[in-house]
Amino acid sequence: METLDSLVKTISERGIRKKAAIVWASDDCTRQAVALAIKDGIIDAIFVGCRAEIEADPAMAACSGHYSIVEAADGDEAAAIAVSMARNGEADIIMKGMINTDNLLRAVLNKEHGILDKGAVLTHITAAHIPAYPKLLLLSDVAVIPYPTIDQRRAQIKYLTDIACRLGREKALIALTHCSEKVDERHFPFTADYVTLKAEAEEGKLGNCVVDGPLDVKTSLDAEALAHKGLHSPIGGHADAIIFPDIEAGNTFYKTITLFAGADIAGLLVGAKVPVVLSSRGDSARSKFYSLALAAL
Amino acid sequence: METLDSLVKTISERGIRKKAAIVWASDDCTRQAVALAIKDGIIDAIFVGCRAEIEADPAMAACSGHYSIVEAADGDEAAAIAVSMARNGEADIIMKGMINTDNLLRAVLNKEHGILDKGAVLTHITAAHIPAYPKLLLLSDVAVIPYPTIDQRRAQIKYLTDIACRLGREKALIALTHCSEKVDERHFPFTADYVTLKAEAEEGKLGNCVVDGPLDVKTSLDAEALAHKGLHSPIGGHADAIIFPDIEAGNTFYKTITLFAGADIAGLLVGAKVPVVLSSRGDSARSKFYSLALAAL
C-alpha cells in the first residue's frame, strides 16, 4: 500500500534537501509542518518575515542549522521576496503561511517580477491517499481553474504525467472524468476535448501516459464497475490520476474523500518556476507537511 | 442512526401498499428488488411485459396475490402502457427494468400521452446512507439536469423539502454547494442565484426549509469544518439535503460515496405525475429495492 508516508520516506532516503521559502509563517501550524519536513531531511527552510514568532517557537529551536530568517515588513513584502528568491534560484519551493492566497498569487503572477512564464498554465495538483484505493491518486484541478480549456487540460496531463513518473509509475494512467462515458458535445463540449486529448496521447504527443475518457469516477477507479458496465478501458479501473470536468467536481471529490473516506491529502500549485504550497487554514500540520514533501519530489 | 433500512421499516409499518408499474422486467435484478418490496408490504406490482420471465421466476412465485402482469410486445410499448396507467391513477410509481432510460423518458415526456405537466421540472433525487454521516442525506441532481437554472433549483428545493419532511425532519436544511463559500458572479453565475434563493427561503417563499449557500461539501456536512473556517450557517454543518452546482459535482459525490465511503443509495426521478425509479445496470437489487421504498414514501 502506497501512502503519503511512503512518499515522505522515498524523498527522505534520497538525501537531497530542497530549499523552501516560507512566506509569513505567523501560525504554529505552518511552522510545525516545516519542522516535520526539516526533521525528515526533506527541506531546509528560509522563513520570510515573522522573526519573533519563529525565534520563540520551541519546534524551530530543534531545527537549528536547517533554517534561516529573512526580514519582511508584512505578508505582501514577504511574498515578493520569496518569489524573487525563486526567480534567482535561491528557493526551490514556495510555501504560503498566514497571508491571503490572492496576495501570494499576485506576486507569483506579477508580469515583471513573477515566476510564471508567458503562456504557462498554473494549476493545482493533489496527491491523495484513500485507504480504499491501493495507490496514491493524483487529482487536477480541485482549487484553481474553474472550467479548463483544452490547452489547460493538455498542461494538466503533462504535469500529472511528470509527477506520476516521479512516483515510479511506468506510464501515467490518466482518466478524464464526466458523469457518464458518453461523448456529448452539445451539452458537455469538454467531452469532445477528451476525445481529442485521448487521440493525441495515443499518437504519443503527450508523453509517457495513457489517457482515457470520458469515464466516470467509478469506471476510472474500480475494475469491477468498469466490467459491470461492459466497458473496456486501457486504464482498466486503475487510474493514477484524474482530471475533472470542472473545479466543482474536483473540489467535491477532494472534500468528500477527506470527510467520508479517511483520505490524507497533499496539494500544490504547479506551472510556475517552482511549486507553490498553498494549503488552507482548514488543513492540518500533517497535510501541509505532506504538501511540502510532494513539492520536494 | 437513520439508514435506508429504517426508511423501509417506517414505510412498511404504515401498512399502505403503493401500486408500482414495472416496465420490462426481463432481468433477475429488477424482479428481485420488486420481490423484496412486495415481501416488506411496500408495493403491489404490475409487471408490464416479460410474462414468461416473471412466471418462471421462483422469487415471484413467493409473491402471489401481490402482482399482476399486463402484456406488452416490447420495451417501448411497455413504457407507454406504464405511463398511461400512471395518468389514469392505476399506478403510483413507475420503475424501469431492462429498457433504455431514454426510451422510458420519451414516454414520460410525451406531450400528448405523457405525465409531465407543462412547466414542471423533472429532476433526480438521491437518498444516501453514508455510514460516517448521522442521518440520510438527500442529493439533487446527480443524473439529469446538467447545469440547473434558478427555476430548476427552486423546484429542487421544493422536492427536497417535501421528501425531508416525509422523513420526519422538522425543517429541511438545504445546502447549496460550491467549491468555496464566496459569491463570485463573474466566474460562477449560479452563486448569485444561491443568494436569491437563500433570500427567498428566508422570506418564507420556498416552504418549510432553511436554505444556505454557497457552502462547500465540508461546511455543509461537518460542524467542525464550519467552525474551523470561522463561518456561521443556519445549517450548522448538519444539512438534510445538498443541491450541487452542476451534474458533474453531483455525480462525482454520488460515485465517490458509493465507491469509497460504503454508502447505500436510493434514487428516483421526481416532478412527473408519479415518481419514476430509474436505477442503472450497475445498481444492486438492494439499491433498486431502496429506490422503490423512497418512491413509496
Question: What do these coordinates show?
Answer:
- The structure is a homodimer of 297-residue chains.
- With 297 residues, chain A is of the alpha/beta class.
- Chain A folds into 2 domains: 4-119 and 272-296, Rossmann fold; 123-264, 3-Layer(aba) Sandwich (Isopropylmalate Dehydrogenase), CATH 3.40.718.
- The first copy, chain A, has 12 helices and 11 strands.
- Chain A has helices spanning 4-14, 28-39, 51-55, 58-61, 75-87, 101-109, 150-166, 190-202, 217-221, 223-228, 247-260, 285-296, and strands at 18-23, 43-48, 67-70, 93-96, 123-129, 137-140, 172-177, 209-215, 241-243, 264-270, 276-277.
- Chain A has a 6-stranded mixed beta sheet, with helices on both faces.
- In chain A, helix 2 (28-39) links the parallel strand 1 and strand 2.
- In chain A, helix 2 (28-39) packs across helix 12 (285-296).
- The longest helix of chain A is centred in the middle third of the chain and has 17 residues, at 150-166.
- Chain A starts with a helix and ends with a helix.
- The interface between A and B is large, with 40 and 40 residues.
Short synopsis of the structure:
Chain A has helices spanning 4-14, 28-39, 51-55, 58-61, 75-87, 101-109, 150-166, 190-202, 217-221, 223-228, 247-260, 285-296, and strands spanning 18-23, 43-48, 67-70, 93-96, 123-129, 137-140, 172-177, 209-215, 241-243, 264-270, 276-277. With 297 residues, chain A is of the alpha/beta class. In chain A, strand 7, helix 8 and strand 8 form a beta-alpha-beta unit.
